Amino acid sequence: MKTLLRVSLLTAALGAAIVEPAWAHGLAGNRFFPATLAIDDPFVADELSLPSFVHRKTPASGDEPATRETEISGELSKRITPWLGLSLEGALNHLDPDGKPSLTGFGNLEVGVKLQFFKSDVHEWVSSLFLGWEVGGTGRKATEAESFDRVKPAILFGKGFGDLPDALAALKPLALTGVFGANIPTRTSTRTVKVEGDEAEIETTRHPNLLRYGLAVEYSLPYLQSFVKDIGLPAPFNRMIPLVEIEAERALDRGQAGITRWTVNPGIIWAGRLFQIGVEAILPMNDRTGKNVGVRAQLHFYLDDLFPRSLGRPLFGN
Amino acid sequence: MVRRAGVACVLAVLLGAAGAAAHAFLERAEPRVGSTVRTPPTQVKLWFTERLEPAFSRVQVVDEAGRRVDRADAAVDPENQALLRVSLSELAPGGYRVIWRVVSVDTHVTEGAFTFKVAP
Fold it and tell me: Is A306 left (phi over 0), alpha (psi -120 to 50) or beta?
């Protein structure tokens, strides 16, 4: 874990030395990349996701019953420079376990720093590095906010296919974004003492290092209309971007190596002038993610368009 | 209470930005993006989603060999600041590429290109 942390910090430091001016608002050449719902996007931007909504049912696990989980969260992202940004995220969780009383409470706060180190307008390609820190103990323990920290380094990319040959014009509106990273707990295990009558039992819960990865496949109807072929789509369809996001997490060690949780999230984003709205179904793909379909939705504001001369500008540069 | 606070935040963001402009994206064009026309057009017209800064917005049209075929008189329409037009020399049958780069009134730069064909 310490080695992985050192590598993550070194990578971020090296990335800071290889900077390239970036544009706001998820643009690379002709390509507009919307903010995605299940996985992070590769852009540094001034934006606000409020609210983001997730509702799903997680399966029973060990002594824990199946639980309906509802999360309402907000995330503020702010550019420090055109290529470096910070983010702050918080969530309110409502847990409704089968056969037990429901609980409501805030999750741990999460702060992040993102460095956009590469962009190619011609090839509609963006790459960035991210380092997230979930601050342990800032949320309510009863709603599963952990008392220890988690460090989340990742590399992100976005690639539009506008550079395909004209013979494949129908595929030009396609784009991919992806994330590959880790979720590193700062504690390897937690011991809990359970007292029943005269007997005390020590329960040890191990916290594995996790590999997290995901991919979003998008087909941009605005891109089709503006850069490939105007097929006469009326509003609101001419601003819609259908997409499928795949989100996965795989345990690496501590007795849980190989255990993977993954979902497929088909949905649609409508991107307007000043904000976008997205909605996706959450389809569980294995036993670890259950059998019930969930839903996620998001209202996302483009602060660089809403407040171009104040909140929507980098603090330094540009 | 949390729900009311959330709604208040959303309303504050929207009301605080009353009158805000945004990035200018291409809404429609004449000739239409990716179209084939029988009659050679005499101008290209581009309608954007936002008003443009005339001094920093430009468009050019080139043929398949990369030669410019517009008259280098691109201008934002004084009656409609979201409309950018450029006149064309007489076009022969073939493919053409429209290349644009504009700045919206909120100072954001967007750019793009599309093709059309002339086939009498």
Answer: alpha
